[in-house]
Design a protein that fits this description.
The complex is a heterodimer of chains A (358) and B (225). Chain A has helices at residues 39-47, 95-103, 114-121, 137-149, 167-183, 195-201, 219-223, 334-339; strands at residues 3-11, 16-24, 28-32, 54-59, 62-66, 71-72, 80-83, 155-159, 188-192, 204-209, 212-218, 237-248, 253-258, 261-266, 276-282, 286-289, 301-311, 316-323, 326-333, 347-352, 355-356. With 358 residues, chain A is an alpha+beta fold. Chain A folds into two domains: 3-230, Rossmann fold, CATH 3.40.50; 272-356, RNA polymerase II/Efflux pump adaptor protein, barrel-sandwich hybrid domain (OB fold (Dihydrolipoamide Acetyltransferase, E2P), Beta Barrel). In chain A, the strands form four sheets. Chain A has a six-stranded mixed sheet, sandwiched between helices. Chain A has a five-stranded antiparallel sheet with strand order 2-1-4-5-6, covered by helices on one side. In chain A, strands 14-13-12-15-21 form a five-stranded antiparallel sheet. The longest helix of chain A has 17 residues, at 167-183. Chain B has a single domain, classed as MetI-like (MetI-like fold), CATH 1.10.3720. Chain B has helices at residues 4-37, 43-55, 58-69, 74-81, 91-117, 120-127, 132-143, 145-161, 164-170, 180-189, 193-217. Chain B is globular. The chains are: A alpha+beta (358), B mainly alpha (225). Chain B: InterPro entries: MetI-like, MetI-like_sf, ModB_ABC.
């Protein structure tokens, strides 16, 4: 399968970006890290906006950079789309001309309907004749995303496209991003420092710390890697990809299934049987029992195997579980872990409170 | 009123200023671009050299240009070797001197405009497949429009107003190097105050109109937006 191979070494005064990555050619890859972790620099290296003195980059089999052979394709010759943190629309052009700016410079459009599609996908058809300074922050960012898509890129790079927006605008854009994830057949590299955006959008996750990759893999695997910064503390969460398998309107519940079993959720009126859903499960919402509870108000109890444990300094323990091949995290007190005698390899039952996020 | 020589001086001045402004825009744009974007250690030196005419007495500048372009100067040797003769006391010499004298008035507004645009729009254009040259004309020029306007107006007006450099390099040859400011000087020397008034008054009105245009047409020409 075609993919993205990226190796960069770029020294900075306070850290060195040093990565060697293989990224999938499909879906959303989140590049997650705190500020100063080098995630934006990595994205800029891929775009050619930053030139790493030692670098190798091949996208879909085509060489974009190889410092050994002195190959460095300038940014304007790379078939990519880039969305900056601030929308950065050209202030002297209206929305339509902003959208057409890149498009008319592409000699061969892989997807001639791309512009109309992008306008429709981002819901901006009513804004075409406006000037950028007459748009809200959210609208501007939607136009910027459409502008990047209009050139029919082979890869879409997004640098914290929501970070400059307030919560309300974020929520205005997130549904559009989810649609992108579902409808585009190109890889999206999405830089973010928000765990919520990661669990909501990503299929694949790369975690960066001080310029180095500390975890990389499928979203489920990487989120549940106990030493990953995302698997720490109250916000730790995992994602379950499930399919709707039944509804109980009288109880206001829906059933979904995945490899680990069947779960009940609050009623998903809009989701027909067979619909794929993405669930976010916070580690703090998963508790552990040794025996299957017989009389309990908790609906979701599934068998699981403990595959790892990590204790923190605050008297809490993060337990990694495996349910039919699907990993899950449980955040419990260290005392409970000790009283129950939990250890790696034990068969237990996980009590789960899950929320649908898509 | 004005005599033929006065009109000749006015025409010559306008020709000189127009030609010099065109040359200054062509020459000043790459210099300003380099000064706005380069990270070279030469930046400070080049910036200072370009700004020199702002503080140097015109007579000093004119003197050095006269020596350089004269038959024994480095530039003069080259122009002689090329069969062009020497530049002092010719219209060509006046053009060269004026370009150097007015350069900072064109470079600085352009440099400010380029710096105000920053690198983000250039990066955006690159991700939208625009080559650097394409980006310059389709993004930088429209965004730096008021900078270009300011630069052209200042370069033109400053060239029209010069005196010291012209005196040193150009002399006072009617139809060749005799510009308005020289002609005013001639009138005052010979006691023809009425004609000096006409020319000086005209320059005053012209300068005021130019500055009025500058301050009304362009927002904050001196400050970054």
């Amino acid at each position: 399968m075609a993919n993205i191979e990226a190796q960069f070494r770029l020294p900075f005064p306070d850290f060195t970006l040093e990565v060697d990555l293989q990224l999938p050619a499909k879906g959303v890859t989140a590049l997650f890290g705190h500020s100063g972790s080098g995630k934006t620099t990595l994205l800029r290296c891929i775009a050619g906006l930053e030139c790493a003195p030692q670098g190798f980059l091949r996208v879909n089999g085509k060489l974009w950079q190889d410092s050994k052979q002195d190959v460095f394709l300038p940014t304007h010759q790379r078939p990519l789309g880039y969305v900056f943190q601030e929308a950065s629309l050209f202030p002297h052009l209206n929305v339509r001309k902003n959208l057409e700016f890149g498009r008319k410079r592409v000699s061969f459009l892989r997807n001639p309907a791309g512009l109309a599609q992008a306008v429709e996908l981002l819901g901006i058809s009513h804004l075409l004749e406006r000037m950028p300074d007459k748009l809200s922050g959210g609208e501007r960012q939607r136009v910027a995303i459409a502008r990047a898509l209009a050139v029919s890129p082979q890869v879409l790079l997004m640098d914290e496209p929501l970070a400059a927006l307030d919560l309300k605008r974020k929520q205005e854009i997130l549904p559009f991003l989810t649609r992108l994830q579902g409808e585009l057949d190109i890889p999206i590299l999405y830089v973010t420092h928000s765990p919520q955006e990661v669990t909501q959008l990503a299929d694949h996750l790369v975690v960066l710390e001080a310029g180095k990759v500390v975890a990389s893999g499928t979203l489920e695997e990487t989120l549940t890697q106990l030493d990953s910064p995302l698997a720490q503390g109250k916000q730790a969460a995992t994602v379950l990809q499930v399919t709707v398998c039944g509804h109980e309107p009288e109880f206001h519940l829906s059933q979904v299934q995945f490899a680990g079993g069947v779960l009940s959720l609050p009623y998903q009126q809009a989701a027909a049987v067979g619909t794929a859903l993405r669930l976010r499960v916070y580690a703090r919402d998963v508790s552990i029992t040794l025996q299957q509870p017989e009389q309990t108000s908790i609906l979701n109890v599934l068998p699981a195997t403990i595959t790892g444990m990590a204790h923190d300094a605050a008297g809490r323990t993060m337990v990694r579980l495996n349910m039919g091949g699907v990993p899950l995290l449980s955040h419990i007190t260290r005392k409970s872990a000790s009283v129950l005698g939990l250890e790696k390899g034990m068969q237990v039952f996980a009590q789960i409170k899950a929320t649908a996020i898509l | 009123m004005l005599n033929d020589e006065d009109f000749g001086a006015i025409l010559l001045t306008l020709q000189l200023a127009s030609l010099v402004t065109v040359i200054l825009l062509l020459l000043g744009t790459p210099i300003a671009w380099w000064l706005a974007h380069a990270r070279s250690r030469w930046k400070g030196i080049i910036g200072a050299v370009v700004a020199l005419p702002l503080v140097l007495p015109p007579a000093v500048l004119g003197f050095y240009l006269l020596v350089l372009m004269g038959p024994h100067g480095a530039v003069g040797q080259v122009t002689k070797a090329l069969g062009l003769g020497t530049l002092p006391f010719t219209f060509g010499g006046l053009v060269v001197a004026s370009v150097i004298y007015s350069l900072p008035f064109v470079v600085q507004p352009l440099q400010n405009a380029f710096e105000a645009i920053g690198s983000r729009p250039l990066e955006v254009a690159a991700t939208l497949r625009a080559s650097p040259l394409d980006t310059f004309f389709s993004v930088v020029v429209p965004l730096a429009r008021s900078g270009f306007l300011t630069a052209a107006i200042l370069g033109f007006a400053h060239t029209i107003g010069e005196f010291g450099v012209v005196l040193m390099v150009g002399g006072n040859i009617p139809g060749k190097t005799q510009v308005i400011s020289m002609q005013i000087f001639n009138h005052v020397e010979t006691g023809e105050y009425a004609q000096a008034h006409w020319l000086s008054g005209g320059m005053l009105v012209f300068s005021f109109v130019v500055l009025l245009m500058l301050y009304t047409l362009t927002p904050n020409p001196w400050r970054k937006r």
